[in-house]
Amino acid sequence: MENGGAGTLQIRQVLLFFVLLGMSQAGSETGNFLVMEELQSGSFVGNLAKTLGLEVSELSSRGARVVSNDNKECLQLDTNTGDLLLSEMLDREELCGSNEPCVLYFQVLMKNPTQFLQIELQVRDINDHSPVFLEKEMLLEIPENSPVGAVFLLESAKDLDVGINAVKSYTINPNSHFHVKIRVNPDNRKYPELVLDKALDYEELPELSFILTALDGGSPPRSGTALVRVVVVDINDNSPEFEQAFYEVKILENSILGSLVVTVSAWDLDSGTNSELSYTFSHAAEDIRKTFEINQKSGDITLTAPLDFEAIESYSIIIQATDGGGLFGKSTVRIQVMDVNDNAPEITVSSITSPIPENTPETVVMVFRIRDRDSGDNGKMVCSIPEDIPFVLKSSVNNYYTLETERPLDRESRAEYNITITVTDLGTPRLKTEHNITLLISDVNDNAPAFTQTSYTLFLRENNSPALHIGSISATDRDSGTNAQVTYSLLRSQDPHLPLASLVSINTDNGHLFALRSLDYEALQGFEFRVGASDHGSPALSSEALVRVLVLDANDNSPFLVPRAAEPGYLVTKVVAVDGDSGQNAWLSYQLLKATEPGLFGVWAHNGEVRTARLLSERDAAKHRLVVLVKDNGEPPRSATATLHVLLVDGFSQPYLPLPEAAPAQAQADSLTVYLVVALASVSSLFLFSVLLFVAVRLCRRSRAAPVGRCSVPEGPFPGHLVDVSGTGTLSQSYQYEVCVTGGSRSNEFKFLKPIIPNFLPQSTGSEVEENPPFQNNLGF
User: How many CB atoms lie within 10 A of CB 728?
Assistant: First the structure.
């Protein structure tokens, strides 16, 4: 029978659960859910999306989750279906005690944007507890002269269930003297009273017993029993009476233990033992018995346990005064607990984001909730943060706050913030709570590399060795990490025809610049190009700077000597070029690109021979500069140039030649000065003229005595490169030739043609150019 009853009970509970579940779904607009207690973990509570009118996909995309006021994770949300499920078995009696209805409050937190939705979960009681009497045996002493209809208090049964499942009725065994009447106390709890139906006769029946049964309203009902023994005593015809039928007192929640709450007082008109009164609590709940104590003799009610206004705001106690004859009187004491500011505000963090990227305004850094368990002004709170930080607090529903950035942040100015959130209540004294967070700012690539100079000027002496370090550039980036890693590159030259890639290179990591090949001042005095510095951010940022390279001259060129008596077609020199390609790409042709006097010299296209084109005259300039162009037959064609310096002399024994590196005007001025000096010296001193003439005769004799195949060339710092190849061609090295022709010869035959390996002088990158050594002529001065 018991098993069958239990099965029926489970079926009814399941049916009731589905009925209540349907009711909760019907009220979806209010956000309320209903669930029976004692359901297993994972049981279905309701569909949150349908109840709140949301899309299921919205719950997942916005990171919806359920949070509670007391941080109890009783519910879990399936964001894929929108179903609310129990995460643990709920015990209504543990959650709410005797409070009815039992409602749990939750919030649904959704992001992007931040939104809070209020939901309520009502836990419905099931009949899972039986009524229990604290005393299994009750003893009543009733005077024999008690009138019919007299009422006697009985101890009530305790049932942890509420509502219809709480104690509903009391019954006793059928007898002719008593019946049970049910009363309701101020706490809305039912308690039994024993009513006398028939006068007692001590001599006939001094004692009788019966069973008191308490039944709850469950289906099926549960019950509890206790034994009641009635002892008939002799006459005591006056019941105690209290001075007040209702006592009301107020007490601070921080009152010390042992404090006197109130004193109740009653009197009895009887005498002797019948007038001796005893005070007790009647039908007091367990929390009352733990918190208060009454002195049975004096009626003093004292405090035995700490009070907590936030847990229980008031107590209602029935005081019973019983005389020695068993008669009693009753009074009610209502104790109102007064709140004091004894709870500091609480901060509960729901989410925090760190680090956050710079340059992003109105970014949610932290979501939190504040709470103060006090009431009135003691429970009112003010939330604040320091004013000198770029953050702002925004309030939301149910004391939820968001900490957001007020303006775009700059990591380069400040990479870390220590934020103190202060919550202060308005009680007396004021209590506050502080919560500290450290917020890191992550870098965004918002700073381009910056060069230390807008332009750089580098100096390089010609005839440098290849791969020579000529200088460095430098750029810095205020960002961090990969955003601050700088890579250097060559961008472009100011001259679109300048082959920059064959002249210089740059180290992409440190900005060192290197000359890739030897430079010739006579071909290239300087060049400009731009360099770039790029970081590794996304997207990458860059900047540019201008680099000027000035080539410093060295005395490395000697002129070609051509006698003025040379006939047309006289071979001056031969330009030789080499191309590393093959086939038609290596077919080379020569042409005269520039000349001091066009038409005086010519270049043979196929062999590079430089010859005179006509007879020389006294009117022709003494110094000539020829630029020979050689190009291949490729597509597109590539070319190189060579610069030749040619001096016209009357003979290889001419004692004076102008310096080739001096400008024509300067050379004429120097010659005039020499002539004036010589003239003045001749006029002023005949002796000096005789000496000069003697020296000239000696030189002429020496030239006549020279062997065939040799020529006398005046000493001097003539340019040494006879063929100068610029960087636009395929030749990677400058060459120097010396050409000598016998004076007065009518033949076009070469006497000798020999290459001279260039001597690389120590390179200098400074800004000063070394002066040429003083000119010395054959006169020995």
Answer: 18
Does 191 have pLDDT greater than 50?
yes
Whether the Cβ atoms of residue 173 and residue 210 lie closer than 8 Å to each other: yes
Contact between residue 140 and residue 231 where contact means Cβ atoms under 8 Å apart: yes
- 540 shares its domain with 483: yes
Reported confidence tier of residue 770, pLDDT bands at 50, 70, 90: very low
User: Residue 38: left (phi > 0), alpha (psi -120 to 50), or beta?
Assistant: left
Contact 227, 137 (CB under 8 A): yes
Q: How far apart are the C-alpha atoms of 201 and 224, rounded to whole Å? A: 30
Q: Is 738 a member of any domain?
A: no
Q: Please say which residue of 408, 442, 476 terminates a domain.
A: 442
Q: Mean per-residue pLDDT for 482-488?
A: 89
194: three-class secondary structure by DSSP: strand
CA dist 243 and 421 (Å) reads: 55
Which distant-in-sequence residues (6+ apart) come within 8 Å of 733 by Cβ?
A: 517, 518, 725, 758
At 639 the pLDDT is: 86
Is the pLDDT confidence value at 758 over 50?
no
Measured distance CA(514)–CA(597) in Å, rounded: 38
Helices and strands (H, E) in the chain, number of each type: 8, 51
Domain that holds residue 88: 32-124
Band the pLDDT of 743: cuts 50, 70, 90: very low
| Domains held by the chain: number | 6
- Compute the CA torsion angle 682, 683, 685, 688 (nearest 10 deg): 0
**Phi and psi dihedrals of 631, rounded to 5?**
-140, 155
Of the listed ranges 275-284, 295-304, 441-450, 721-730, the least confidently predicted one is: 721-730
Question: Max alpha carbon distance in the chain (Å)?
Answer: 188
What Cα–Cα distance (Å) separates residue 676 from each residue in 115, 657, 694, 777? 103, 17, 20, 18
Q: What is the mean pLDDT of the segment spanning 472-495?
A: 87
Instruction: Establish if 573 belongs to a structural domain.
Output: yes
For residue 248, the domain's CATH number is 2.60.40.60
The Cα–Cα gap between 697 and 189 comes to 153
Residue 704: its pLDDT value, please? 62
Instruction: Characterise 168 by phi-psi region: left (phi > 0), alpha (psi -120 to 50), beta (else).
Output: alpha
CA distances for 5 relative to 1, 15, 163, 170, 219, angstroms: 6, 15, 22, 22, 10
Confidence of residue 192 (pLDDT cuts 50, 70, 90): very high
User: Looking at the domain assignment, is residue 387 inside a domain?
Assistant: yes
Q: What is the mean pLDDT of residues 561-567?
A: 76
If we measure between CA atoms, which residue out of 586, 664, 651 comes closest to residue 625?
Answer: 664
The CB density around residue 178, as the number of other CB atoms within 10 Å, is: 23
Instruction: Give the pLDDT of residue 108.
Output: 83
pLDDT(463) > 70:
yes
> pLDDT at position 260, please?
94
For residue 374, tell me if it sits in a domain: yes
Cα torsion angle, 240, 242, 246, 250, sign: negative
Sequence-ordered strand ranges (E) for 711-763? 736-740, 752-756
CA 133 to CA 25: how far, in whole Å? Answer: 40
Question: What pLDDT score does 774 carry?
Answer: 34
Give yes or no for a contact between 450 and 543, defined as CB atoms under 8 angstroms apart. Answer: yes
Q: Cα(310)–Cα(372) distance, rounded to whole angstroms?
A: 10
> Reduced to 3 states, what is the DSSP secondary structure of residue 44?
strand
Q: Which of 651, 671, 657 is nearest to 558 (CA)?
A: 657
Residues 403 and 464 in one domain: no
Q: What are the beta bridge partners of residue 624?
A: 646
Q: Which of 428, 247, 251, 248 is nearest to 338 (CA)?
A: 251
Residue 571 and residue 614: Cα distance in Å, rounded? 12
Q: In the predicted model, is pLDDT for residue 19 greater than 80?
A: no
What is the token pair recorded at 411?
A: 């990591």
